[in-house]
Amino acid sequence: MPASWSQRRRPTWGRRCFVPSADPLQIIVSEGRRLVDTARANLDAPIPQYPEWTMEGLVAHTGAILGRTTLVCRDRLTERPSSPRPGEDDDVIEWFEGQLAGMVELLETTDHEIPVWGFGPKPTVGFWVRRMLIEAGVHRWDAQSAVGEPEPLLDEVAVAGLEEYPEMWFPRLEGVQTLQMIASDLERKWKYGDGDPAATVEGSASDLYLRLMSRPSPVVLPDDWAAAVDSLAPPPK
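RESULT FIELD:
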């Protein structure tokens, strides 16, 4: 990835913008590589978060989302396209690596302000940079959790997820009171809902976002939030 990328462009993610300390595309590449490095020798391992998937399915799913992002941003699509899938004779690791490289190469030179299809209000190419940062980081965690103790989410991934939550996920929750979350390791806070918070929870940014994604975490949500978060349908794909 060209060293000049960070000098040319930083992603625009809207009014609740989080600017990572490292280039988001570099993080996506790094997390994608860590995912496949974990998967290579463990393609048959079951994924705790998705019992119907093996590691091979996780790699194929993540590659499909990367490939769909390429289609959306390359062709300036305004409607949801079908996601590419590996063929029966494809090596899923090599196929994933091709999807990752193609997407990053495209996003390095694409204006992040261009409106395209996506989730939430007024999505742009920049929305997909953030979404793929989160996607790669969380699924790297999923892969590692299938074979041992996973490393925490990177700060950039966790904060991007917590920043995205009000637009991507909070509108889908029902019957929850206003909640404040404090990332004690980063001295950052977020409020979800209107008015004064009815409750506050603290933890590392990684643990906070993992809990919101129904992954194992020491963070304890209020009962209304725990029920709402854990009853969400699978995320939009």
